[in-house]
Amino acid sequence: MKRVKLHDKEFEIAIRYDQIQTAIGVVAQRIREDMKDEHIPVFLSVLNGSFMFTADLLKQMDFNCEVSFVKLASYSGAASTGKVQELLGLDIDISGRTVIIVEDIIDTGQTIAGLFKKLKRHHPKQIKVATFLYKPDAYKQTIPLDYIGIRIPNDFIVGYGLDYDQLGRNLRNIYKIVN
Ligand code: 5GP
Ligand code: MG
Fold first, then answer.
1. Which of 6, 27, 102, 157 could pair covalently with 167 via S-S, beta carbons 3.0-4.6 A apart?
2. Model pTM?
3. pLDDT at residue 77, as a whole number
4. Beta-strand pair 42-47/98-106
5. By percentage, how much of the chain surpasses pLDDT 90?
6. Which pLDDT belongs to residue 157?
């Protein structure tokens, strides 16, 4: 599909599924190299948006690892609310462990900064950040982003896990809003 309509808005294709998979392959390769001597890293996936990226990324990990989920929300509709809400907390012990946060998209960085701070209180060995999409022009934090899939402009996008008011998560391609 070249165009989709979700609620009141139109979206056009921006990144195709095959481009998504190529970018994930590159990120996966780098993570495999960095993690080969680490003892059972834990991938911490940030729901809901990152479920597709998490699934595709984890299928390419060839070492013993764990996966766990937290649920955060900072968006309402198509704009950030500026507040990070924790809807499902950490349910594993991460002290002394290597944690790789798995995010769908990093925009202003507020969500990742909040999560990073929370996780540090549990004294992990190290925290790495893997994000599928990154909006460099919107990022306002200093936390280093270790693994970035694709850099994108400041458009509102949907698909491949990302929603517009809960619609569009099922789309295999990524679509950007048509103004
Ligand atoms: P940040 O806290 O970095 O500003 O925003 C991070 C969260 O906002 C992401 O995890 C995602 O849920 C949401 N978000 C940011 N940009 C977009 C976008 O273009 N489309 C959608 N659907 N969600 C976004
Ligand atoms: Mg997210």
1. 6
2. 0.94
3. 56
4. parallel
5. 87
6. 98
Q: How far apart are the first and last CA of the chain?
A: 18
> How far is the C-alpha of 145 from the C-alpha of 128, rounded, in Å?
7
Rounded to 10 degrees, the C-alpha dihedral 143/145/146/148 comes to 180
Total domain count, the chain: 1
**Joined tokens for residue 138:** 């919107």
What distance in angstroms lies between residue 38's CA and the mean position of ligand 2's atoms? 26
Domain-embedded: residue 107: yes
CA of 133 to the centre of ligand 2 (A): 10
Helices within 36-87 (DSSP H only): 51-58
Which residues on neighbouring strands pair with residue 148, listed in sequence order?
Answer: 131
Q: 119: helix, coil or strand?
A: helix
Domain membership of residue 130 as a residue range: 3-11+19-74+84-177
Look up the CATH number of the domain holding residue 148: 3.40.50.2020
